[in-house]
Specification:
Strand order of the largest sheet of chain B: 1-2-4-3-5-6-7-8
Helix content of chain B: 40-55%
Number of helices of chain A: 3
Structural class of chain B: alpha/beta
Shape of chain A: globular
CATH superfamily of chain B: Alpha/Beta hydrolase fold, catalytic domain
Oligomer: heterodimer
CATH class of chain B: Alpha Beta
Number of strands of chain A: 4
Distance between the termini of chain A: 23 Å
Largest interface: A-B, 29 and 23 residues
Strand order of the largest sheet of chain A: 1-2
Radius of gyration of chain B: 17 Å
Largest sheet of chain A: 2 strands, antiparallel
Order of helices and strands of chain B: EEEHEHEHEHHHHHEHEHH
Order of helices and strands of chain A: EEEEHHH
Number of strands of chain B: 8
Radius of gyration of chain A: 13 Å
Number of helices of chain B: 11
Helix content of chain A: 40-55%
Number of domains of chain B: 1
CATH architecture of chain B: 3-Layer(aba) Sandwich
C-alpha cells in the first residue's frame, strides 16, 4: 500500500486512491455509492461484525465491492481520525 | 441573534429568567443542540448559548484556540450584561470553561464539564494529521458522516443522526481543524486546581472519544467535584436527552440562587 498524498490545495500527488473516491485529472472526486458503503462498513465494525459479513452487506446494499485491502485502509484512516470506535 | 465581538459576529440565543447559565457546545455542534436543556431550565434560569466562532451561524474571520474561545465568551457575556453565570462546557467546551474560570473566576457560579478532559492524551497528533489530510479532499459532509457512524450509538434515533450531520456541515473546515489543534495538544491540567466553585463532571459510559478515565481525572483534579456517569456515548444529548438532562438539572437546581 502506498500512502495517499494530497497537496494543501487538494491536488492528488500520489499513493492509493481512498475507497469512495476516483481520480479525475489531479482531483479526487466522490463516488456516492462507495461513500454510503463506507458509512455502512464503519457502523458494522462498531457492531463487531467481521470483514466478510461487511463486504457482503455493502455489495447487497450499495452494489459495490469493498476489498479487504480497501477495508483495511478505510478503517486505518478512520481510527487515525476518530480514535477507537 | 447576533453580537460582534473580537472581530467576529457570534450567533447566540438568550431566553428565560433568573440566574444566568451559559452553554458551550461540542465540536461540530452549535447553540441549537442545547435546546432540550434550555427548554428544561428556562423557567428559572436565563439560558445563553453562543455558537463558537466558525460554527453554526457565527463567522470565522480569524483563528481559534482555547484562550481565544474563552475571550469570545467573556466578550459575549459582557456584551449581554451578564456578570456571573453557571458555565456548562461540553467536550470542546470543557477546556474553554476551565480557561475562562482561571481568567475570570469572579464570573463563574458553577462549572458543569460534560464528556471532556483536562488532557486528551490519546492519539491526538495522529488525529490532527489525518484530519488535515482528509479535509484536503473530503467534504465536511463526508467527514461528518463517517465521524457520526463511529460515535452515535446504534439506538440513537435517525433524526438525531441527521441533525448532527446538518450541524457539522455548517462549520468551517479551518475552524474544525483549529479546534482539534487547540484542544487535543495542550494540557489544561493546571486550570483544574484553580476551580473553586461547585463542579459537576459527567460522562457517557460508552464514550470512546473522551472516555470515562478522562472524567475520573477531572474529578480527581478538581476539589469537591461531583461525578456522574450516564448510559450514553460521547454525544449523550443525541443518544438519550432525558438521561443526559437529569444530572445537569439536579446539579443546577441544587445551587444557591
Amino acid at each position: 500500500m502506498a500512502e495517499l498524498q494530497v497537496a494543501e490545495d487538494g491536488r492528488y500527488l500520489g499513493g492509493d486512491i481512498p475507497f469512495g473516491y476516483a481520480l479525475w485529472g489531479d482531483r479526487l472526486v466522490e463516488i456516492p455509492a462507495e461513500l454510503d458503503a463506507c458509512v455502512t462498513a464503519i457502523r458494522m465494525v462498531k457492531q463487531g461484525k467481521p470483514y466478510p459479513e461487511i463486504a457482503a452487506a455493502v455489495r447487497h446494499e450499495h452494489g459495490v465491492t469493498l476489498s479487504q485491502r480497501q477495508f483495511d485502509s478505510l478503517m486505518e484512516s478512520v481510527y487515525r481520525r476518530y480514535g477507537p470506535i | 441573534m447576533k453580537i460582534s465581538v473580537n472581530g467576529e459576529t457570534l450567533n447566540y440565543v438568550k431566553v428565560g429568567q433568573g440566574p444566568a447559565i451559559v452553554f458551550l457546545h461540542f465540536l461540530g455542534g452549535f447553540s441549537y443542540q442545547w435546546r432540550h436543556q434550555i427548554e428544561a431550565l428556562q423557567d428559572r434560569f436565563t439560558c445563553i448559548a453562543f455558537d463558537h466562532r466558525g460554527f453554526g451561524f457565527s463567522t470565522f474571520n480569524g483563528r481559534w484556540d482555547v484562550p481565544i474561545g474563552a475571550e469570545d465568551l467573556k466578550a459575549g457575556l459582557d456584551a449581554l450584561g451578564i456578570d456571573k453565570a453557571h458555565v456548562i462546557g461540553y467536550s470542546m467546551g470543557g477546556p474553554i470553561a476551565l480557561v475562562f474560570n482561571s481568567r475570570w473566576p469572579q464570573m463563574v457560579r458553577s462549572l458543569t464539564l460534560i464528556d471532556t478532559f483536562a488532557k486528551n492524551h490519546t492519539h491526538s497528533k495522529a488525529r490532527i494529521e489525518e484530519s488535515e489530510k482528509c479535509f484536503r479532499y473530503m467534504s465536511v459532509r463526508e467527514y461528518a458522516r463517517q465521524y457520526i457512524a463511529t460515535r452515535l450509538l446504534p439506538s440513537t434515533p435517525k433524526s438525531a443522526v441527521d441533525e448532527l450531520l446538518s450541524a457539522i456541515c455548517l462549520c468551517e473546515k479551518e475552524a474544525y481543524l483549529d479546534v482539534l489543534r487547540g484542544i487535543l495538544l495542550p494540557d489544561f491540567t493546571e486550570h483544574c486546581s484553580k476551580v473553586k466553585v461547585p463542579t459537576l463532571v459527567m460522562c457517557g459510559r460508552h464514550d470512546l472519544t473522551t472516555p470515562v478515565a478522562f472524567t475520573n481525572d477531572l474529578t480527581r483534579l478538581i476539589d469537591g467535584a461531583i461525578e456522574r456517569i450516564i448510559p450514553t456515548g460521547h454525544l449523550g444529548c443525541f443518544d438519550d436527552p432525558v438521561e443526559f438532562n437529569k444530572p445537569i438539572i439536579e446539579f443546577l437546581d441544587a445551587q444557591p440562587r
